[in-house]
Amino acid sequence: MSLAEAPDRGRQVRHLGLWAAMVAIGIGWGLTQLLSKIGMGAGYHPLGVTFWQAAIGAVVALVALALTGRRLPFSRFHLAFYAACGLLGTALPATLSFTAIQHLPVGVQSIVLATVPMMTLLLALPLGLERAEPRRLIGLVLGLTAVLVLVGPDASLPHPGQAAWIALPVIVALSYASENVLIDRYRPAGMDALQIGCGLFLAAFAMMVPMLAVPGIVPFPAAPGPRDLALLACGILNIASYLGLVWLIGRGGAVFASQVGYVVTGTGVLAGMLALGEQHSTYVWAALALLFTGLALVTPRETASPKP
Questions:
Q1: Element housing 243 (H / E)
Q2: Which tens digit of pLDDT belongs to each residue from 154-202?
Q3: DSSP string, 79-138
């Protein structure tokens, strides 16, 4: 190999590493829906499970913050910002998600939750945070149509009564989208994504602490079983994937990292089929196709290649 070829080979290796990281992060995040489905089979209260998810997130984020030498600001504005993000980014959506997964197939919930970019655009347009480009508006319509396809036809879900539960992951997607808009508009100067993540997990944990006073809400299994371990793995994968995405954005750019959504959704659908034997109707597959097309259109028109 000549000296001129060496930089190109190194760049290719870095690019392949970023693609591998994106796929790994997407698979890890996509498996959280399967793990939550398995774990919630233990009959735990969603609020109690959210307590432990917030606790795991807070511990992992604090360790990551300490290892990187960062500090967390605690002014009144910062505390209010953490509280809003903790509510919209963890406490509310996690509780609703754990409730919904008890009634919906893993694949269906994964599809609905993947509408977060569309919901974010929907909320950002009136605030002037995003431009109303025709292609992105079409993507928004396709994403919302995907949800309607899941709810509308009687044959779209295994049981007709499940359609009502789709409202919960829709609210979850709106909650995450609201958090995105909040961070975009009110993000404190000088704060990076890791600091924000640590602050919101700490705030979410503080919100869930009162659940300890309600008998039977927060589980303390004496001998953790497979379902408890599934919920533990779900919490660890969730925060690890979040931190991994923060790293990926820094190395490959936001547009490249946004493609992780395809892997997350695809993993959720496949995991439900392979692990739980879920079977989906033509309507569900049509909704997935509409969603993926909408995601491609909503993503800002920039290069999707990772940074050299």
A1: helix 226-252
A2: 767 877 778 889 999 999 999 999 998 898 889 898 888 889 989 999 9
A3: HHHHHHHHIIIIIHHHHHHHHHTTTS-HHHHHHHHTTHHHHHHHHHTTTTSS---HHHHH
Largest alpha-carbon pair distance within the chain? 70
- Map residue 149 onto helix, strand or coil: helix
Amino acid at 138: I
Task: Please give the structure tokens belonging to residue 136.
Answer: 């992105």
Helix and strand numbers, DSSP H then E, in the chain: 13, 0
Q: Quick one: 32 exposed, middle or buried, by C-beta within 10 A (0-12, 13-18, 19+)? A: buried
Compute the distance between CA of residue 65 and CA of residue 55 in angstroms, rounded to an integer.
15
Beta-carbon count within 10 A of 170 CB: 19
The pTM score is 0.89
Tell me if 118 sits within 8 A of 144, measured CB to CB. yes
The first and second tokens of residue 137, run together, are 């508006």
